[in-house]
Amino acid sequence: MQGANLSAVTEFILIGFSIFPHLQLMFFLLFLLMYLFTLLGNLLIMVTIWREPSLHMPMYLFLCALSISEVLYTFAIIPRMLADLLSTHHTIALMACASQMFFSFTFGFTHSFLLTVMGYDRYVAICHPLRYNVLMSPRGCACLVAWSWAGGSIVGLVVTSAIFQLTFCRSNEIYHFVCHVKPLLKLACGENVFTLAMGVGLVCITALLGCCLLILLSYAFIVAAILRIPSAVGRHKSFSTCVSHLTMVVVHYGFASVIYLKPKGPQSLEADTLMGTTYTVLTPFLSPIIFSLRNKELKKAMKKTILNKL
User: Where are the transmembrane segments (predicted)?
Assistant: First the structure.
């Protein structure tokens, strides 16, 4: 019986924003503008870093990699969401759903790992400035970026393969606008669903908390080093190089903790749907704003790039 039920599920229906029938056009226009801004902002950051020799240093290499992961993450989710907002046909094939989950988790966790690497970069720059060129050599930076992408790919592969080995027999309606773990688990049946759900949750939370703890540890050493600087100007100059990264960390992990660490309890479908937009639309939208406005060197170089194009 389970095999028959599994073979019958060849596609899912994404309920998504269909619960807001009168607001779909408004959501479409809002999310389209935010998506276009996200793409343009990240592309501008990448082009600026590529064209400006003064930005060819580890911190901006990591920022460029972060922008790439941001573009790919939003591309895995938002175009499909925008299409569904204008359509009455919300079905998604089983393999397309699995692909969307894999890529969204891969690029999402790559983003988390890159933020951790950027925290380590700031730690080395402030706490071990004389060894910075040795510890953050081009080869070392390339390895850190490669390991971040590899780590994201492993998490995406583990989560996706675990979820899609389940039997889906209750329904084919996903109460979300994206193929996400929690709504898919609600459609699964079998003796191993609870065990597998705990395992997937443990992998995701361990990866997020591990990155968060490493960043906190880096900043504990950074703060201690900054407090030892005798002049106020020196302290301000050192800390200013960390502000944009620290702000992005607070935003990223703040929204992620709301999703992954929220207590179980009754929650409306409307609230879950709107909460999902915080990490799929809002966080990527804020990222280029935070890094371009809070980083003076990048902001100056971006103005130069824009003026050269005009």
Answer: 25-47, 59-78, 98-120, 141-164, 194-227, 239-261, 273-293
